[in-house]
Amino acid sequence: MIEALIFDVFGTCVDWRNSVAREVAAVLPEVDAFAFADAWRGEYDPAMARVRAGNRGYIPLDDLHLENLHIVADRFGVELADPEALNRAWDKLDPWPDVVVGLNEIRRSRIVAPCSNGSIALITRMARNAGLPWDCVLGADLAHDYKPKPEVYRAACAALRLPPAKVMMVAAHNSDLRAARAQGLATGFVLRPQEHGAQQNTDLLAEDDWDIVAADFHELAARVAGQ
């Protein structure tokens, strides 16, 4: 039986795009807030890729976000009076409407924890803001590396003192689940067709025979309860 579910956070649990755009609009009303948010997020994977490739040591995502903010601000030709304050937009991401209730439903019988590329500090602040009821916070800080590196999934299982077969990785991203399955974890896919806005063209369906495929966290909770 699955004893713990670990979750991707950005996109799966929280609506980063609308939340970040809201904060950008408040600070930089002269720019297209959604274009700025998309560009900022667009620097996310390239920044982590340099760490994953060993081209630089591990740097918490908080700091990568700040570096990326300066890159994007230069690209948009804007001056930031307080970059660190705007960087805290990532602490204030709103959960998708089904997430808090769904997590509480799952938590009645299973451990729930994030397995995120966010730092422990970032994910903790986000959880307090969004009311996410995690039992603990896992992820990149434990492994000093970023998903989809195998070490991140293995470190999460080790921290819970559970074999991978008793842990389910839940994500709205097929690539995350492929990497988790390769390490022996069970997999749960939850559809988030609006993560990247109305024009999203990725992760619109389950691309493999994941152990659970659910429309939202309510369905996920019901499927988990039935196991």
TrEMBL record:
<comment type="similarity">
    <text>Belongs to the HAD-like hydrolase superfamily. S-2-haloalkanoic acid dehalogenase family.</text>
</comment>
<dbReference type="InterPro" id="IPR051540">
    <property type="entry name" value="S-2-haloacid_dehalogenase"/>
</dbReference>
<dbReference type="InterPro" id="IPR023214">
    <property type="entry name" value="HAD_sf"/>
</dbReference>
<keyword id="KW-0378">Hydrolase</keyword>
<dbReference type="InterPro" id="IPR036412">
    <property type="entry name" value="HAD-like_sf"/>
</dbReference>
<dbReference type="InterPro" id="IPR006328">
    <property type="entry name" value="2-HAD"/>
</dbReference>
<protein>
    <recommendedName>
        <fullName>(S)-2-haloacid dehalogenase</fullName>
        <ecNumber>3.8.1.2</ecNumber>
    </recommendedName>
</protein>
<dbReference type="Pfam" id="PF00702">
    <property type="entry name" value="Hydrolase"/>
</dbReference>
<comment type="function">
    <text>Catalyzes the hydrolytic dehalogenation of small (S)-2-haloalkanoic acids to yield the corresponding (R)-2-hydroxyalkanoic acids.</text>
</comment>
<dbReference type="InterPro" id="IPR023198">
    <property type="entry name" value="PGP-like_dom2"/>
</dbReference>
<dbReference type="InterPro" id="IPR006439">
    <property type="entry name" value="HAD-SF_hydro_IA"/>
</dbReference>
<dbReference type="GO" id="GO:0018784">
    <property type="term" value="F:(S)-2-haloacid dehalogenase activity"/>
</dbReference>
